[in-house]
Amino acid sequence: MEQQRHELLSDVADLVASVLEDHGVAASLAEQCGAALADRLAAHWGGQLINIPKDYRFKLAARDLLIYEEFTGNNHADLARKYDMTVRGIYKIIERARKRDLDYRQPKLF
Predict the structure, then answer these.
(1) What CATH number does domain 56-105 carry, 1.10.10.60, 2.120.10.30, 3.30.460.10, 3.40.50.300?
(2) Could you read off the pLDDT of 29-88 as tens digits, one per residue?
(3) Which pLDDT belongs to residue 110?
(4) What's the pLDDT score for residue 28?
(5) How remote is the C-alpha of 74 from its chain's centroid?
(6) What angle do helix axes 27-45 and 7-22 make, rounded to 10 degrees?
(7) Backbone dihedral region of 29: left (phi > 0), alpha (psi from -120 to 50 degrees) or beta?
(8) I want to staple 85 with a disulfide (CB 3.0 to 4.6 A). Which of 65, 89, 101, 109 is the partner?
(9) What are the domain boundaries of the chain?
């Protein structure tokens, strides 16, 4: 009877092999690396309950940065249409981004 690897570990091994092959690594070596990583994950994290985040905040921050960089001072409505948001939502993003930018450029002295 053939033993099968857990679906997550199998997917990780396949993904690593695919990425390495895309970067010019030989298929046999890429497959070995994928299997080695899956083995390491199983040995290190095996038995743990893991919740993998969708990275929503990171994606949101990247989108907000794009909006801030595209902001010209008077294109709120255009940005709202482009990003499928309300104009008020664009104002909030610009306000938050300006505050972060100011905090970065001008650190608190006291």
Answers:
(1) 1.10.10.60
(2) 999 999 999 999 999 999 999 888 888 788 888 899 999 999 999 999 999 999 999 999
(3) 61
(4) 96
(5) 30
(6) 140
(7) alpha
(8) 89
(9) 7-45, 56-105
